[in-house]
Amino acid sequence: QVHLVESGGGLVQAGGSLRLSCVASGGTDTIKYMGWYRQAPGKQRELVAGIDSVGSTTYGNFAEGRFAISRDNANNTLIMNDLKPEDTAVYYCTAGVQLASQLVVRWGQGTQVTVSS
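Structure (tokenized):
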């Protein structure tokens, strides 16, 4: 089954940039959708960005114009520009996986992004 590993989180100053990577392994030919969600303390998990198998992208309102997602087969990269303190959260990679008759969702463990003011 698909396993997702995130990397690239860390501490960055406001206005800076960060690149997050998600590497998938195991049954990667079954991945149809990949994306990122984030969750800050005391807040709901929210969509950051997503990309489907033909390259169509979608972004959360806060991410539009600042963040960009790209995909190389079963791996993807999230480039975040002009980071703000409110972007501080745990960022989770996700993948939609087609398993014959089922469509299931896989999650990575998350990577912490902290933006200082």
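The chain has a mean pLDDT of 96. The CA atoms of residues 1 and 98 lie 11 Å apart.
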